[in-house]
Protein backbone atom coordinates (compact mmCIF):
# COMPACT_ATOMS: atom_id res chain seq x y z
CA UNK A 1 0.00 0.00 0.00
CA UNK A 2 1.22 3.53 -0.74
CA UNK A 3 0.26 6.30 1.66
CA UNK A 4 -2.13 8.81 0.14
CA UNK A 5 -0.55 12.19 0.87
CA UNK A 6 -2.04 14.47 -1.78
CA UNK A 7 -3.90 17.30 -0.08
CA UNK A 8 -2.18 16.73 3.26
CA UNK A 9 0.55 18.83 4.89
CA UNK A 10 3.84 17.58 6.33
CA UNK A 11 5.84 19.72 8.76
CA UNK A 12 9.55 18.86 8.69
CA UNK A 13 11.99 20.24 11.26
CA UNK A 14 15.62 20.62 10.28
CA UNK A 15 14.56 20.95 6.64
CA UNK A 16 17.52 23.20 5.73
CA UNK A 17 19.94 20.29 5.39
CA UNK A 18 20.60 16.56 5.13
CA UNK A 19 17.79 14.21 6.12
CA UNK A 20 15.30 17.03 6.66
CA UNK A 21 15.70 18.29 3.09
CA UNK A 22 15.28 14.73 1.85
CA UNK A 23 12.13 14.11 3.94
CA UNK A 24 10.56 17.36 2.76
CA UNK A 25 11.40 16.47 -0.85
CA UNK A 26 9.81 13.01 -0.61
CA UNK A 27 6.62 14.34 0.99
CA UNK A 28 6.38 16.98 -1.75
CA UNK A 29 7.14 14.42 -4.47
CA UNK A 30 4.19 12.42 -3.15
CA UNK A 31 1.94 15.47 -3.41
CA UNK A 32 1.91 16.78 0.17
CA UNK A 33 2.22 20.45 0.97
CA UNK A 34 5.17 21.06 3.27
CA UNK A 35 6.03 23.36 6.16
CA UNK A 36 9.79 23.80 6.36
CA UNK A 37 11.34 24.68 9.73
CA UNK A 38 14.97 25.38 10.75
CA UNK A 39 17.09 28.43 11.57
CA UNK A 40 18.69 29.07 8.14
CA UNK A 41 15.90 30.87 6.34
CA UNK A 42 17.81 31.34 3.05
CA UNK A 43 18.19 27.59 2.63
CA UNK A 44 14.55 26.96 3.51
CA UNK A 45 13.42 29.52 0.91
CA UNK A 46 15.57 27.91 -1.79
CA UNK A 47 14.10 24.50 -0.96
CA UNK A 48 10.56 25.89 -0.88
CA UNK A 49 11.01 27.42 -4.35
CA UNK A 50 12.42 24.17 -5.69
CA UNK A 51 9.65 21.99 -4.25
CA UNK A 52 6.80 24.23 -5.27
CA UNK A 53 8.04 24.63 -8.83
CA UNK A 54 8.97 20.96 -9.27
CA UNK A 55 5.96 19.34 -7.60
CA UNK A 56 3.30 22.07 -7.62
CA UNK A 57 2.82 21.91 -3.85
CA UNK A 58 2.57 24.74 -1.35
CA UNK A 59 5.80 25.07 0.64
CA UNK A 60 5.64 27.31 3.69
CA UNK A 61 8.83 28.53 5.36
CA UNK A 62 8.87 29.15 9.11
CA UNK A 63 12.33 29.99 10.46
CA UNK A 64 12.69 29.00 14.10
CA UNK A 65 15.27 28.09 16.70
CA UNK A 66 13.59 25.04 18.18
CA UNK A 67 16.00 24.85 21.11
CA UNK A 68 14.59 28.14 22.40
CA UNK A 69 12.07 28.11 25.23
CA UNK A 70 8.45 28.12 23.99
CA UNK A 71 9.45 27.43 20.38
CA UNK A 72 7.03 24.52 19.88
CA UNK A 73 3.97 26.43 21.11
CA UNK A 74 4.94 29.41 18.98
CA UNK A 75 5.35 27.20 15.91
CA UNK A 76 1.91 25.64 16.35
CA UNK A 77 0.39 29.12 16.76
CA UNK A 78 2.16 30.24 13.53
CA UNK A 79 0.91 27.19 11.67
CA UNK A 80 -2.65 27.57 12.97
CA UNK A 81 -2.68 31.26 12.11
CA UNK A 82 -2.00 30.24 8.49
CA UNK A 83 -4.94 27.81 8.58
CA UNK A 84 -2.73 24.76 8.09
CA UNK A 85 -3.62 21.33 9.52
CA UNK A 86 -0.46 19.28 10.00
CA UNK A 87 -1.15 15.69 8.93
CA UNK A 88 2.47 14.51 9.26
CA UNK A 89 5.07 15.78 11.71
CA UNK A 90 8.72 14.87 11.11
CA UNK A 91 10.81 15.63 14.19
CA UNK A 92 14.16 15.53 12.47
CA UNK A 93 16.12 18.59 13.72
CA UNK A 94 18.94 17.48 15.96
CA UNK A 95 22.68 17.49 16.43
CA UNK A 96 25.43 15.61 18.22
CA UNK A 97 28.61 16.51 20.07
CA UNK A 98 31.59 14.22 19.79
CA UNK A 99 33.74 14.74 22.86
CA UNK A 100 34.36 13.38 26.33
CA UNK A 101 31.51 14.55 28.56
CA UNK A 102 33.74 16.83 30.65
CA UNK A 103 35.41 18.32 27.57
CA UNK A 104 32.18 19.23 25.78
CA UNK A 105 30.85 22.75 26.11
CA UNK A 106 28.18 22.70 28.84
CA UNK A 107 25.89 25.18 27.07
CA UNK A 108 26.00 23.27 23.77
CA UNK A 109 25.29 20.08 25.70
CA UNK A 110 22.19 21.64 27.26
CA UNK A 111 21.13 22.99 23.84
CA UNK A 112 21.41 19.48 22.43
CA UNK A 113 19.05 18.12 25.07
CA UNK A 114 16.70 21.07 24.45
CA UNK A 115 16.59 20.31 20.72
CA UNK A 116 16.87 16.52 20.50
CA UNK A 117 14.57 15.78 23.43
CA UNK A 118 12.57 18.74 24.73
CA UNK A 119 11.60 20.26 21.38
CA UNK A 120 10.70 16.82 19.96
CA UNK A 121 8.40 16.06 22.90
CA UNK A 122 6.91 19.56 22.92
CA UNK A 123 6.21 19.52 19.17
CA UNK A 124 4.60 16.10 19.43
CA UNK A 125 2.45 17.37 22.31
CA UNK A 126 1.42 20.42 20.25
CA UNK A 127 0.51 18.66 16.99
CA UNK A 128 -0.70 15.21 18.07
CA UNK A 129 -4.08 16.22 19.57
CA UNK A 130 -5.41 17.45 16.20
CA UNK A 131 -4.25 14.21 14.54
CA UNK A 132 -6.02 12.13 17.19
CA UNK A 133 -9.14 14.29 16.79
CA UNK A 134 -9.01 13.71 13.01
CA UNK A 135 -8.45 9.97 13.53
CA UNK A 136 -5.43 10.05 11.21
CA UNK A 137 -1.88 11.37 11.15
CA UNK A 138 1.81 10.50 11.08
CA UNK A 139 4.63 11.32 13.49
CA UNK A 140 8.18 10.39 12.45
CA UNK A 141 10.87 10.94 15.06
CA UNK A 142 14.51 10.62 14.04
CA UNK A 143 16.46 8.56 16.56
CA UNK A 144 19.78 6.89 15.71
CA UNK A 145 21.72 3.65 15.97
CA UNK A 146 23.29 5.57 18.87
CA UNK A 147 20.08 4.73 20.75
CA UNK A 148 20.97 1.02 20.95
CA UNK A 149 23.77 1.21 23.50
CA UNK A 150 25.63 3.74 25.66
CA UNK A 151 27.94 5.87 23.48
CA UNK A 152 31.23 6.84 25.16
CA UNK A 153 32.42 10.22 23.71
CA UNK A 154 28.86 10.88 22.59
CA UNK A 155 27.28 10.06 25.93
CA UNK A 156 24.61 12.74 26.01
CA UNK A 157 23.82 12.45 22.29
CA UNK A 158 23.34 8.68 22.61
CA UNK A 159 21.12 9.22 25.65
CA UNK A 160 18.96 11.75 23.78
CA UNK A 161 18.45 9.22 20.99
CA UNK A 162 17.70 6.39 23.46
CA UNK A 163 15.04 8.72 24.85
CA UNK A 164 13.63 9.38 21.38
CA UNK A 165 13.46 5.66 20.58
CA UNK A 166 11.82 4.68 23.89
CA UNK A 167 9.39 7.61 23.87
CA UNK A 168 8.39 7.00 20.27
CA UNK A 169 7.82 3.26 20.62
CA UNK A 170 5.63 3.82 23.69
CA UNK A 171 3.69 6.61 22.00
CA UNK A 172 3.19 4.48 18.89
CA UNK A 173 1.57 1.82 21.03
CA UNK A 174 -0.69 4.38 22.73
CA UNK A 175 -2.01 6.15 19.66
CA UNK A 176 -2.10 3.43 16.99
CA UNK A 177 -5.67 2.53 18.00
CA UNK A 178 -6.59 6.20 17.47
CA UNK A 179 -5.46 6.12 13.85
CA UNK A 180 -2.11 7.87 14.21
CA UNK A 181 1.01 6.16 12.84
CA UNK A 182 4.09 6.90 14.97
CA UNK A 183 7.52 5.73 13.90
CA UNK A 184 11.08 6.21 15.16
CA UNK A 185 13.72 5.98 12.46
CA UNK A 186 17.21 4.83 13.44
CA UNK A 187 19.78 5.82 10.83
CA UNK A 188 23.46 4.98 11.25
CA UNK A 189 26.20 7.15 9.77
CA UNK A 190 24.58 9.13 6.94
CA UNK A 191 26.25 11.58 4.55
CA UNK A 192 24.92 14.94 5.80
CA UNK A 193 26.36 17.92 7.67
CA UNK A 194 25.95 15.96 10.92
CA UNK A 195 29.61 14.87 11.20
CA UNK A 196 30.88 18.40 10.66
CA UNK A 197 28.42 19.90 13.17
CA UNK A 198 29.13 17.27 15.80
CA UNK A 199 32.92 17.31 15.30
CA UNK A 200 32.85 13.59 14.58
CA UNK A 201 36.17 12.42 13.17
CA UNK A 202 35.83 8.73 13.96
CA UNK A 203 37.81 6.81 11.34
CA UNK A 204 35.54 3.79 11.63
CA UNK A 205 32.57 5.91 10.55
CA UNK A 206 34.05 6.66 7.13
CA UNK A 207 31.80 8.14 4.43
CA UNK A 208 32.23 4.83 2.53
CA UNK A 209 30.24 3.08 5.23
CA UNK A 210 27.65 5.82 5.31
CA UNK A 211 24.17 5.70 3.85
CA UNK A 212 22.79 8.49 1.73
CA UNK A 213 19.82 10.52 2.99
CA UNK A 214 17.75 9.00 0.15
CA UNK A 215 18.41 5.50 1.49
CA UNK A 216 17.15 6.51 4.94
CA UNK A 217 14.09 8.15 3.41
CA UNK A 218 13.39 5.02 1.32
CA UNK A 219 13.53 2.86 4.49
CA UNK A 220 11.19 5.28 6.26
CA UNK A 221 8.58 5.34 3.51
CA UNK A 222 8.72 1.57 2.99
CA UNK A 223 7.85 1.27 6.69
CA UNK A 224 5.15 3.95 6.54
CA UNK A 225 3.61 2.51 3.36
CA UNK A 226 3.57 -0.90 5.04
CA UNK A 227 1.67 0.51 8.02
CA UNK A 228 4.55 -0.10 10.41
CA UNK A 229 4.52 1.62 13.79
CA UNK A 230 7.17 1.68 16.54
CA UNK A 231 10.63 1.84 15.00
CA UNK A 232 12.69 0.99 11.96
CA UNK A 233 16.45 0.78 11.47
CA UNK A 234 17.94 1.91 8.17
CA UNK A 235 20.56 -0.25 6.45
CA UNK A 236 21.65 -3.89 6.69
CA UNK A 237 24.86 -3.14 8.59
CA UNK A 238 22.97 -1.04 11.11
CA UNK A 239 20.40 -3.81 11.63
CA UNK A 240 23.26 -6.23 12.22
CA UNK A 241 24.76 -3.83 14.76
CA UNK A 242 21.36 -3.59 16.46
CA UNK A 243 21.12 -7.39 16.69
CA UNK A 244 24.64 -7.73 18.08
CA UNK A 245 24.00 -4.98 20.61
CA UNK A 246 20.87 -6.77 21.83
CA UNK A 247 22.72 -10.04 22.30
CA UNK A 248 25.89 -8.65 23.88
CA UNK A 249 26.23 -7.90 27.60
CA UNK A 250 25.68 -4.17 28.17
CA UNK A 251 29.34 -3.54 29.08
CA UNK A 252 30.50 -5.27 25.87
CA UNK A 253 28.01 -3.25 23.81
CA UNK A 254 29.35 -0.07 25.42
CA UNK A 255 32.93 -1.07 24.54
CA UNK A 256 31.83 -1.83 20.94
CA UNK A 257 30.29 1.65 20.65
CA UNK A 258 33.42 3.24 22.14
CA UNK A 259 35.52 1.48 19.49
CA UNK A 260 33.25 2.62 16.65
CA UNK A 261 33.33 6.21 17.91
CA UNK A 262 37.08 6.34 18.63
N1 LIG B 1 23.85 12.01 9.71
C1 LIG B 1 23.99 11.02 10.56
O1 LIG B 1 25.01 10.30 10.54
C2 LIG B 1 22.88 10.72 11.54
C3 LIG B 1 22.85 9.44 12.14
C4 LIG B 1 21.83 9.14 13.03
C5 LIG B 1 20.87 10.09 13.33
N2 LIG B 1 20.92 11.34 12.75
C6 LIG B 1 19.89 12.32 13.12
O2 LIG B 1 19.29 12.79 11.94
C7 LIG B 1 18.70 14.06 12.18
C8 LIG B 1 19.04 15.01 11.03
O3 LIG B 1 20.43 15.25 11.01
P1 LIG B 1 21.27 15.33 9.67
O4 LIG B 1 22.13 14.12 9.61
O5 LIG B 1 20.41 15.64 8.51
O6 LIG B 1 22.23 16.55 10.04
P2 LIG B 1 22.36 18.03 9.44
O7 LIG B 1 22.63 17.95 7.99
O8 LIG B 1 23.36 18.70 10.32
O9 LIG B 1 20.91 18.66 9.69
C9 LIG B 1 20.46 19.05 10.96
C10 LIG B 1 19.25 19.94 10.80
O10 LIG B 1 18.79 20.35 12.12
C11 LIG B 1 18.57 21.75 12.08
N3 LIG B 1 18.76 22.37 13.40
C12 LIG B 1 19.89 22.31 14.17
N4 LIG B 1 19.72 23.05 15.28
C13 LIG B 1 18.46 23.58 15.19
C14 LIG B 1 17.71 24.44 16.03
N5 LIG B 1 18.21 24.91 17.19
N6 LIG B 1 16.46 24.80 15.65
C15 LIG B 1 15.95 24.34 14.47
N7 LIG B 1 16.61 23.51 13.65
C16 LIG B 1 17.86 23.14 14.01
C17 LIG B 1 19.59 22.29 11.08
O11 LIG B 1 19.14 23.51 10.52
P3 LIG B 1 19.67 24.98 10.90
O12 LIG B 1 21.12 24.87 11.21
O13 LIG B 1 19.34 25.76 9.66
O14 LIG B 1 18.82 25.40 12.06
C18 LIG B 1 19.55 21.19 10.01
O15 LIG B 1 18.49 21.45 9.11
C19 LIG B 1 19.24 14.51 13.55
O16 LIG B 1 18.24 14.32 14.53
C20 LIG B 1 20.40 13.57 13.79
O17 LIG B 1 20.65 13.38 15.17
C21 LIG B 1 21.90 11.65 11.86
UniProtKB/TrEMBL annotation:
Source taxon at top rank: Bacteria
Enzyme Commission number, as recorded: 1.-.-.-
SUPFAM superfamilies: NAD(P)-binding Rossmann-fold domains
PROSITE patterns per record: ADH_SHORT
One Pfam family cited in the UniProt record for this chain: adh_short
Protein keywords: Oxidoreductase
GO molecular function: oxidoreductase activity
InterPro entries: NAD(P)-bd_dom_sf (IPR036291), Sc_DH/Rdtase_CS (IPR020904), SDR_fam (IPR002347)
Family label: Belongs to the short-chain dehydrogenases/reductases (SDR) family.
The protein's name in its UniProt record: SDR family oxidoreductase
Source organism of this protein record: Microbacterium rhizosphaerae
Amino acid sequence: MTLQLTGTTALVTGASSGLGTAYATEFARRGADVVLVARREDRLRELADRLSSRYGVTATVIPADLAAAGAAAKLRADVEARGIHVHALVNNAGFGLHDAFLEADAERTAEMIDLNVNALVALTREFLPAMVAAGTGIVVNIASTGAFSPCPTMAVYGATKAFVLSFTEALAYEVHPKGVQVLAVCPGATATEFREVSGLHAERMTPDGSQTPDQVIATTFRALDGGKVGSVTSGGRNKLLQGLTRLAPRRTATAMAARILS
